[in-house]
Structures are given as structure tokens and as C-alpha cells.
Amino acid sequence: MEKIKDYDRLKKIIEKFNITGDIISINPINNGIINTTYVATLSDENKYLLQKINTNIFKEPYRLMKNIENVTSFINSNDAKSKDNLTVIKTKEGAPLCVDKDEFSHKSYYRMYNFITGSTSYDKVDTPIIAYNTGKAFGHFQRILKGYPMVLLEETIENFHNTKKRYADFLEAYQRDAVGRKENAYKEICEIMSREEVCNIIVDLLDKKKIPYRVTHNDTKVNNVLIDSKTNEPVAVIDLDTVMPGSGLYDYGDGIRSACSSALEDEKDLSKVSIDMEKFKAYTDGYLSEMAPYLKPLEVSNMANSVKIITLELAMRFLEDYLNGDTYFKTDYDDHNLVRAKNQLKLVEEIENKIPQMECFIDECYKKYKGKSKTMRNSK
What we know:
Elements: H1 7-14, E1 23-29, E2 36-42, E3 47-52, H2 61-78, E4 88-89, E5 98-101, E6 107-114, E7 119-120, H3 128-144, H4 163-176, H5 186-193, H6 201-207, E8 214-216, E9 225-228, E10 234-237, E11 244-246, H7 248-260, H8 277-291, H9 297-301, H10 303-324, H11 336-378
Antiparallel strand pairs: 1-2, 2-3, 3-6, 4-6, 5-6, 7-9, 8-11, 9-10
Helix pairs in contact: 3-7, 3-8, 4-10, 7-8, 7-10, 8-11, 10-11
């Protein structure tokens, strides 16, 4: 196996955490587009996740870790059903982060988690059962954190899911055209501008207090759920960097967008991009099996809309980053973010065509689980 860059430096960083055993191997995980992640295998047969935090995005890593420590502790104390949850491993000095300085005194921040064995994550959902259990995992995550005091949560990325603000940022990037790319993306720019009003829906409902703020994950991609490799049941929700107060609609919508698309986010052949309704039904069933009793009517009636809104938001974010010169998302080639934006805009069109079907199933599924909840309470 090829030795990874800075192996010796990473080894010294890992040894500063409160773990035992000698380091056998350090291997990169390349499926993230924000932080840099490694798996460390030790001689005592334990494995750990080491992450270098992207401080271009998370500018206050200690505030970030305060959120994660508090939320993981709350989950571990209140989630009696799960035997495996994410746990922060502290340094030998009791700190949540290891700070490393290079020869120019530039600081890098590293954190460590337990590695949950016997589980896997998926970049793409191939079966309805995985879609169901992904939806169930995120619904369970929201339900467990229902009692968590939101006043303790730090806003790790300001306005992260404020689609109205995202539209304004996109418009500014288009007008500035920092690297001279807007001529390559006029069609996509026009498609986003034609949907400006859609960007206001969830934000306005929150501002007018018609739907509640909840403790939300805010990045409910399918690969942020660990699935049991044998049973296909959900094990844990991971990547808690963006856990903040927000709308549960964004979490649900992004979960559907990620789990139920027929193609990956950077698929170039747009004929392959659509919403798989069988997986949509499975994911929704899993999510509502956990959350139906706790949702407000306006949340339920906007669930289908939320899928379109969050997909449009991501298209804007990809296109904004493309226009800005690829400063946020990791890219593998020059037009990577443009390809991602085209992909998500095609998905928006597919969602718009299927919203009536989606609304019918959501209503049917919601009534099923809300009714069961009432029956169970009345029988006690």
C-alpha cells in the first residue's frame, strides 16, 4: 500500500489522543468533500477516525466541537435502542482537539472519533430497504434530540440553510463573476432565477413562527448514516458538524434528495437523473415512522415542497462556488461544480413533476403513523 503524505506527522498527532496500542496503519477516506478523514488501526484491534477540520469553512473549531460533544453526550444518554453511537475521543490532556503547527506556525485542528465496526455507509442507495432505514435513522435522530435545549447549540455556519440568503449570495456571485465563468452557465443561472420565489417558503414559515425550529442535522446525505453490514438496519448518524437549530423540513428534503436520486450528484449524463418513487416512499415511511406524532400540520403539508427547495438550494451553492472559483467544495476537475449544478437542476425538474404523487403518499403515510401513535397512547 502506498504510504500517505505526512504519515509521520499524522502518527504523532494520533498518539496525542487518549488511546492505547501501537499504530498499525493510517488510511485515508476519500468520500468527504469538506474535511480530510483517516482511519487509524491500532495493535489492540481498535480503530479510530481522525479528521482534519476544514477551517476555511469551520472558522471556530472549538465552538464546533462544543456542539458535537454536547449532542453526542445527549444522544448516548438518551438513545437506549442503539448500542453504537458516535463518541468524541479526547486528547491525553482532555482537549477535544489536537492542534498541530507546521514550520510556518500555521495551525491545523484534528479531532478523533470511535470507529463503528460492522457498519457501512452508502454514497448511493440501491434498494428500498436502505432508503427506509436511512429515513428512519434521520427521523430517529430528530426524535431523540427533540428534548435537547437549543439554547446550547452554536451556529457553526451562519445561515447554512437560509435559502433566501443563499439566493442573494448566488446572485452576488453571478454579478461579480470573479473568475469569468458566467458565460459557461447562463442556462443554469436563468433556471435558478426563474425559481426565486421558491427560496422564500421555508424561511418565511420559520420567521412567522408557523413551523418550529428543531435540532437538525442539516446535512442529511445518505453517506452520513452508518448501516449495519449484516441486517441493513441503521446504526448511527454521523458528521455532526452542522447540527444547529433549523427546520426539520430541510433535513427531510435533503434526505430524499440524497437517498432517492437515481444518480450521484456529479453524474454528467442528465438522462440518468431522476427521483426514484419507490425509494421515496421507503425513505418517507422510515422517517414518518419516527417523527409523525411530533410534526406540525404545516410541516407535513410542505414536506414534498422541501425536497424541491433543498435541491434548488444545493444547485445554487454548487453554481455559486463555480462562479467564485471553487473555493468551498472539493473538485476533481475545472467544471466539476458546474456539472453538479446541472445535475441538481435536472433533479429539481423531476421533483416538480412528481410533487402531486409525493404529497399523496406523504399524507397517507403520515395518517398511518399518527393514528398508530394515538392508538398506542390510548391503550396504556
